[in-house]
Design goal:
alpha+beta; Aminopeptidase; Alpha-Beta Plaits; six-stranded mixed sheet; five-stranded antiparallel sheet; 11 helices; elongated; binds zinc ion
């Protein structure tokens, strides 16, 4: 499908990778493919206990004295497909296609996994080439980045010699990443007591918020649907009449929630009062969000969806007043959004929190918050603050999925070499920055503190979605940059 695209070796390997199913958690086959490549090409290869594959190639003549360079990417992809796509992504390869205008490669009906298949394709093309000058190379392919960075977490320092680390897991050509935020998930759990009441059900929902990535879009002034629902309920101010069966909102802790809802039980008298209170609150709140969230809407509707809290039709187990108060107090006080901007580099988000998910599991309401910071202490402090607030509101706090950040180094030989090479290849200035999201570099530097790292890659749009597409010309320019950079690093 991709023959004719340049550089042909890169696209050939990319196509081979896409023929192998490799969603997160399903990486044994792609690992075996990489080990097979090493064997075929007579290259040394290690498969680590966790599944990471490391392939070595010696320096080309004249480059023997230069420090070894690591090319790194992750093996797994976010495997998602359209509702009407019949493909079994655990067993079948992707159907690659080129857009009508000839500019992009994408996969029919599914995500493409350009994130991060292109890193492996670049790596294999370098390892297979005999016409590129380079220092000793190690291709490090990590497992399951997308579901918790397991491969980077379990990478063994003794398996990798190189300390000049090229992470090829960025999707914005012309931007060099030289630092990233660390993160943690703070879980707040509120036990609720229930009473049995009779009546009918109403659903109160908040929908149509813009949402976005909880790191890179946390400074874009997006509203949080879960917190809007909480303020709607406060504005309605009907005290004892609020008898929820459950509350839910958001899908991932690393996405700003676009919708949230609560199902309540009411009797006939309360129904009228609640409809009035809802109308009043809606009239008050909507104008406040008109500019920020033009798609926002509030809905009050009948429902029969009592879920597990229905005893029989007309009879429900509802949260009592003090339980509701705990949850609403927490939601009214929990911080959301940017809590500090960074001084160096200036103008970037330093510390933030996203309230990503709320759900009701039996008699527990659970809220997941995703904390990020460029500064380790600030990450801890914000996590602690949310934990403290949880306890003060009568809940239990737990911390999960903590990962370290990657601090911007004032001096970096690798960064300078990359910037020089970029100027030479593009005749322009690159952007050098840090990102308010997690990269594997943080964990790698934790294992090997002397590592000098940078992260870059070709343009890939809408990653992790079925609209993911990779720009063909950008893949070629980034390849040229990589080859020239390796030649430069080969000189010492
Ligand atoms: Zn990635």
């Amino acid at each position: 499908m991709l023959e004719g695209l340049k550089p042909s070796a890169v696209w050939k390997y990319f196509e081979e990778i896409c023929a192998i199913p490799h969603g997160s958690g399903n990486v044994a086959q792609i690992g075996a493919y990489l080990a097979g490549f090493a064997e075929k090409n007579g290259l040394a290869c290690i498969t680590e206990p966790c599944g990471n594959v490391i392939i070595r190639k010696d320096a080309t003549p004249g480059c023997e004295n230069a420090p070894a360079v690591v090319l790194q990417g992750h093996m797994d992809m976010v495997a998602v497909k359209d509702g009407d796509c019949e493909k079994d992504m655990t067993r079948e390869g992707l159907d690659l296609a080129i857009s009508e205008d000839g500019q992009f490669v994408y996969a029919e009906g599914t995500s493409l996994g350009g994130d991060d298949g292109i890193a492996l394709a670049y790596g294999l093309a370098i390892l297979a080439a005999d016409d590129i000058a380079h220092p000793a190379i190690e291709l490090v392919a990590t497992v399951d980045e997308e579901t918790g960075m397991d491969g980077a977490r379990e990478l063994l320092a003794e398996d990798v010699k190189g300390r000049r680390w090229l992470n090829l897991d960025s999707e914005d050509e012309g931007v060099l990443l030289a630092g990233c935020a660390g993160g943690l998930t703070q879980k707040s759990m509120f036990g609720v007591s229930r009473d049995t009441v009779s009546g009918s059900l109403l659903r109160i929902s908040v929908t149509g918020c813009r949402g976005g990535h909880s790191g890179t879009e946390i400074d874009k002034n997006r509203a949080n649907a879960i917190l809007i629902l909480a303020s709607l309920l406060r504005e309605m101010d009907f005290g004892k009449m609020l008898q929820p069966l459950w509350i839910a909102g958001g899908e991932k802790d690393n996405a700003i929630p676009t919708s949230a809802e609560m199902v309540i039980c009411v009797n006939d008298y309360e129904r009228i009062e609640i409809c009035r209170a809802f109308d009043r609150a809606e009239r008050k709140l909507l104008p406040v969000y008109r500019m920020q969230e033009p798609g926002l809407s509030f809905v009050l509707e009948e429902t029969e969806d009592g879920g597990e809290h229905m005893i029989q039709e007309g009879s429900y187990r509802v949260m009592n007043e003090s339980s509701v108060e705990k949850v609403l107090n927490f939601l009214s006080l929990v911080p959301f959004g940017v809590s500090a901007m960074s001084e160096e580099p200036k103008g970037l988000v330093e510390t933030s929190n996203n309230v990503g998910i709320i759900r009701t599991a039996g008699d527990t309401v659970i809220v997941d918050s995703s904390v990020r910071s460029l500064v380790p202490l600030r990450k801890q402090q914000l996590g602690d603050k949310i934990a403290l607030l949880t306890t003060m509101c009568g809940g239990i706090a737990e911390r999960h999925s903590e990962y370290p950040g990657w601090e911007f180094r004032p001096e970096s030989v690798l960064r300078e070499a990359w910037v020089e090479t970029y100027r030479e290849v593009y005749g322009a200035e690159p952007v050098v920055t840090t990102i308010h999201a997690g990269l594997e570099c943080g964990l790698i530097i934790e294992h090997m503190p002397e590592t000098d790292a940078v992260s870059f890659g070709p343009n890939i749009f809408d990653i992790h979605t079925t609209s993911e597409r990779m720009e063909i010309a950008s893949v070629e320019r980034t390849w040229n940059l990589l080859v020239k950079l390796l030649e430069r690093l080969g000189r010492g």
